[in-house]
Amino acid sequence: MTKFFFVLSLFISTTAFADLQQSFEAIKTHARHYRDPGAVCEEVARKEFSELYPAPVYEVIVGVAYNINGRTVGELDMVLLNKKTNRVEMVGEVKCYADMRSGLKKAKQQRKRFLRNLTSGLPLEFINTSTGEVYSADQFAGVTQFISISQKGGRSVGFDYELEHTLDEMSQLRDEVVQCQQERLCPAP
């Protein structure tokens, strides 16, 4: 029986490492600053949602600022754009916090602020924080899904979707990408 648990534990550890390695391979080419711990979670969210909503029909965009009269009033962590309709179908707030309840509260506050600004009648401008691409307010007008996304375990406190990695694994992944950038093996911003 002990041998069985050892083999099972080894299998689980190997599988977790393989999944972490797949995530590393998927995000290492995204040249961004990973000093912010949330950055790696956003990139893992891009990876996972790109698998759920594949190109060329969909584009998963990470980091879209929304501005009023040139002033940034908020940022959307993840946006799902339907390329066929050229409309945003989903907005996701990604929160990888040690205190997941606090992260969920923050996601809900950001959702409320976004919806308030979206329905305010003020002219909104949406800008991709990585590429500078501008999106029209019309593309966001019909957003029907606004979800909260956390590290593994977040569903237990009310998040809509949890990523495949724990917070510790996200930290490990972040360290690997930062090291890869420092060694100039991965692109840096």
In short, what is this structure?
The protein has helices at residues 2-27, 37-52, 100-118, 137-140, 167-182; strands at 58-68, 71-82, 87-94, 124-128, 134-135, 145-150, 161-162.
Task: Pick out its properties.
189 residues; alpha/beta; seven-stranded mixed sheet; 7 strands; 24% strand
Can you walk through the features of this model?
With 189 residues, this protein is α/β, with parallel strands linked by helices. It has one domain. It is 43% helix and 24% strand. The protein has helices spanning 2-27, 37-52, 100-118, 137-140, 167-182, and strands spanning 58-68, 71-82, 87-94, 124-128, 134-135, 145-150, 161-162. It has a seven-stranded mixed beta sheet with strand order 5-4-1-2-3-6-7. A hairpin with a 5-residue loop joins strand 4 (124-128) and strand 5. Helix 1 (2-27) packs across helix 5 and helix 2 (37-52) packs across helix 5 (167-182). It is globular. Mean pLDDT is 89; it is low at 1-17.
Task: Domain count, please report it.
Answer: 1
The total of helices stands at 5
- The ordered H/E elements are HHEEEHEEHEEH
Mean pLDDT: 89
Instruction: Tell me the number of strands.
Output: 7
General form: globular
Largest sheet data: 7 strands, mixed
Beta-strand percentage range = 15-25%
* Helix proportion range: 40-55%
What is the strand arrangement across the widest sheet? 5-4-1-2-3-6-7
Radius of gyration: 18 Å
Q: What is the end-to-end distance?
A: 51 Å
- Helix/strand class: alpha/beta
The low-confidence runs, each spanning 5 or more residues with pLDDT under 50, are 1-17
